Amino acid sequence: MSKPLIILLGDQLTLSLPTLRQAPENAVVALCEVASEAHYVPHHIHKIGVFLAAMRHFAQTLRDKGFTVHYSALDDPDNTHTLISEAERLASAYDCNHIQAVRPGEWRLWQAMQNRQDTALPWQLFEDDRFFTTPEDFAQWAKGRKQLRLEYFYREQRKRSGLLMEHGEPAGGQWNFDHDNREPLPETFESPRPPQHQQDALTREALAVAQQHFGHHMGTLETFNWPVTRRQALVDMRHFLDHCLPDFGRYQDAISDTDPFLFHSRLAVAMNIGLLSPREVCKAAETCYYTGSAPINAVEGFIRQILGWREYVRGLYWTQMPNYKRENRLGFTRDLPAFYWDGNTDMRCLQRAIEMTIDNSYAHHIQRLMVTGNFALLCGVKPEALCDWYLAVYADACEWVELPNTLGMVLHADGGLMGSKPYCASGKYIDKMSDHCQHCRYSPKQVTGAKACPLNSLYWHFLETHENKLSQNPRMKLIYGSLARMKTEKRDAMRQQAQAFLAKLDTAPGYGDAIHTDGYDGKTRPNPEATS
């Protein structure tokens, strides 16, 4: 008689999972807190707290639904602390004859599971159908294309899903309203405060475990306010739709010196771990357009992030791994700047982005791409170091979504597979889209000198350094024309300014060497705040 052990991962907390939908009555469902997954990068304590609390709540939900559940807690003496071995230990203990699993969010785990399909206790693997597309769907779309551009993928997704489509045409008469979504914040504005989630006994217990084992990691649980149940996630979704979505579009690229959330949804965590489905979120946003409660530019821009970008980066991840992770087309070698762990820099935009990250395990997409990401790009930070940092510090960072965004979009390390040009910018961009510069010791209007914004000379130094690889890019010919027309003395001064800054930049060596296997070596990662 067939008796499966169904292993659920921390980002698969939904009853709609295919293994649960078709589970026989004798199935045993297992959720496992294992040290190898908590330690291989120094995850922010909020991120660890989200997973521990949400997993424990979902285990209770399963029990309430009548499932037989085994929960391996971090402190259980029999816990083997690696996912594969713990699943196989439990399958043997419950006399199960095979293990069922849904595709995880990381290639390393998927490979480890595939390697166990033909063992005496075989693993049966299922596709994760919570997404709009499968990796096979993306592979079929990408077949024969020289460039894998988001816009073309997104349009097909709109047609397939029917979202914001009217009689075969896009709602509002066009596919993309991005040109309406680039307004800086007005001098006076008020954004809605996120709902404050109450912590029940189960959540408090999980957070106490996180504090006990990971209290030295980035962040403090005093500011923890993430949804850890479906009910809390639905509250966050309703709050966004009612109070934030109407203004989300026009201000989605803006940055505030004081407000970490603005009009952003903060729903990625809930979607990524399974508390919300991307379909229900997109449908709810679409309804706001048709009921007149949010404008088309806001709704289209939001749906494009989920239906378009989220699906696109996942498809790219699964079709390009494992070689994608080793890409470094611009040859970057610098270690991560040390202040990425504590925010101790006098560059105001970076200081605030990192302080907000420390406080909330969150920064919105422009802070990630155009502040911490842009600086790392201009400084030539090696991809493995920056990728591990993003994976560690953000609560919504699963590798399938983090790696392409960081390696491809931020660092242009894939040679343009994702982005048609590097997203590099000088201090002028930060000055236009934020109020940081008025609080900074540096001036975005100066390129050289003691008060010059470092981003300015670093920007031109980056362009000059990579001129051979980038100057033929059609989208960069104009800026390289400007560089070519500069007087030699000005170029020399900018180069010297940038080189002097880089020579003094403290780095945090030792990051970017994460343990990307299922094995755990028993060593606790070093405290980033103690690393210099």
TrEMBL record:
<dbReference type="InterPro" id="IPR052551">
    <property type="entry name" value="UV-DNA_repair_photolyase"/>
</dbReference>
<dbReference type="GO" id="GO:0016829">
    <property type="term" value="F:lyase activity"/>
</dbReference>
<dbReference type="Pfam" id="PF04244">
    <property type="entry name" value="DPRP"/>
</dbReference>
<dbReference type="InterPro" id="IPR014729">
    <property type="entry name" value="Rossmann-like_a/b/a_fold"/>
</dbReference>
<keyword id="KW-0456">Lyase</keyword>
<protein>
    <submittedName>
        <fullName>Cryptochrome/photolyase family protein</fullName>
    </submittedName>
</protein>
<dbReference type="InterPro" id="IPR007357">
    <property type="entry name" value="PhrB-like"/>
</dbReference>
<dbReference type="InterPro" id="IPR036134">
    <property type="entry name" value="Crypto/Photolyase_FAD-like_sf"/>
</dbReference>
